[in-house]
Amino acid sequence: MTKTVEFYFDLGSPATYLAYTQLPKICAETQSELTYIPMLLGGVFKATGNASPAMIPAKGRYMFQDLDRFAKRYGVPLRINPHFPINTLMLMRAVTGIQLHQPQRFHDFIDCLFKALWVEGRNLNEPAAVAAVLTEHGYDPQEILALTNDESVKAALKENTETAIRRGVFGAPSMFIGNQLFFGQDRLDFVAEALRQS
């Protein structure tokens, strides 16, 4: 029976970006499936009383240094976005809309946004910057904006977020194998280990 990793993610988390760069390889090596589940990290924080480590200056400085160490270990580019934190409500609605209505473009869509945020350091708090990134990658910004205003898309993202909270998610990235939760990109070795177990 093929195992599945459910990957609860929000684009605004640099740790989630690092997990995103590694999970496909881990799943390929373990012949497992990877399921992407967009959620709204701000909603999770509000419901659980959690907050970004970056809100505590000393912890934030350490976290960014640690993420840089992991990026070097993984051999992937990482630039801490100078505009962090990013309000991801519209972005995550767009991601959800693409997943629902244009699933064949989903991987390219999240890839261009993750890279815009965590490689190029773009200010995706600004609608004009988002539109520029989308246009560069062959998307119609007006079409994407329409998706973010679609009630079914809003409802799907809300449901994903509420489901994550019910399952015990308190931050991102969060990964489930069955009912077992793994939190943080620094726990990917445990994810791989669980997938290898028969």
UniProtKB/TrEMBL annotation:
Residues 4-195 form the DSBA-like thioredoxin domain. InterPro entries: DSBA-like_thioredoxin_dom, GST_Kappa/NadH, HCCAis_GSTk, NahD-like, Thioredoxin-like_sf. GO terms for biological process: glutathione metabolic process; naphthalene catabolic process. GO terms for molecular function: 2-hydroxychromene-2-carboxylate isomerase activity; glutathione peroxidase activity; glutathione transferase activity. The active site is at S13. The keyword Transferase applies. CDD domains: DsbA_HCCA_Iso (cd03022). It comes from the Bacteria. GO terms for cellular component: cytoplasm. It catalyses: RX + glutathione = an S-substituted glutathione + a halide anion + H(+); 2-hydroxychromene-2-carboxylate = (3E)-4-(2-hydroxyphenyl)-2-oxobut-3-enoate. SUPFAM superfamilies: Thioredoxin-like. Keywords: Isomerase, Transferase. Its EC number is 5.99.1.4. Pfam families: DSBA. Gene3D superfamilies: Glutaredoxin. Belongs to the GST superfamily. NadH family. This is 2-hydroxychromene-2-carboxylate isomerase. It comes from Pseudomonas khorasanensis.
